[in-house]
Amino acid sequence: MVQVDVFWGYGWGASLAAAAGRPLARAEQPLSTRYFVSALIFLSLFWAPTGMLLLLRHPSWETMQAAASLSSMSEWLILGFGITNITQGMLGFWVGQRLLASGGRYLAQLNWIAGYFGMFFILLYGWDGLGYDRFLYDRDLLPGSPAWTPGAATVAGGGVGPALWHFLGSGVAQTLYIDGLYLLPPFFFLACRYAKQSYLSLPASERTAVPAPKNPSLILRYLGGVFLVGFGGAAFCAAVVRGVAYLLGVGDHIERGLGHLPAQTTQHILSYFLGLPLGLSLLWFTLLRPGRLVQRYLRPLWQVA
């Protein structure tokens, strides 16, 4: 989706930087290394085309139901979407490299997880509390399907569970499957190759104390970071923001969106400024800070970095 791909692209670039580890950290000109060149090729030839395919085939869904069709979108928005898919990945890579160079191997892992956190938070909650409903509505499922309205996916579909099941067989989902088959193999090839090169760069005396990286383990740990930490953290913060909104008097988002309840726009915006810092602080002190569960879980990734 246009609104989330800037975070997802950041996560791709940051992931590849974290995987490159020590050799990238020691590079005098990190943006001239083969790691950055390979990351840029991946972003340009694999990541960016998948987003453009979704935009061409499913413009309403790819814009989180903000655009009725491709022709209704500004040319500059489409150009910007194509450009930021690459530049955000470059930014994530650069930040990751700077963290590695300063000795922040664990922070470099949290850097790519932050990209996934931003992506999932928008998908789940978004700017109106209805990101999940926008995500699950496929206007292209049937010719002439009506434009999205609040609750069109979950209320009309019998709830989140049935709507999700229905979505898994939709045209959007089929395009996502194609994107995954095109995108994931080269990414995991690069990430695992980088991690092994980083491990081999360790002095022999240190290498004996660190388990040699194995592709299945690296991939599973990475996916755990994406879904357990990134998605789980975003879901938790979305719940915290929603709870704060309730305390501020913001009613049901679907009813607000349909105009059945007062918009309470000021209180709704305030809930983000209060709820997100609160949720992130709770996550940091309970799970994320050094020595806590997430660092131990990600140890096989940052030890070889």
How much is the average pLDDT?
Answer: 93
% residues in beta strands = under 5%
Care to count the β-strands? 0
Helix content: over 70%
For the termini, the CA-CA separation is 31 Å
Radius of gyration: 21 Å
The global form is: globular
Characterize the biggest β-sheet: none
The poorly predicted ranges are none
Structural class: mainly alpha
Characterization of the model:
This protein has 305 residues and is an all-alpha fold. The protein has one domain. Helices cover 71% and strands 0% of the residues. It is built from 15 helices and no strands. α1 runs antiparallel to α6 (105-124) and α1 packs parallel to α9 (171-200).
Pick out its properties:
305 residues, mainly alpha, globular
Q: Concise description?
A:
The protein has 305 residues and is mostly helical. The chain has 15 helices and no strands.
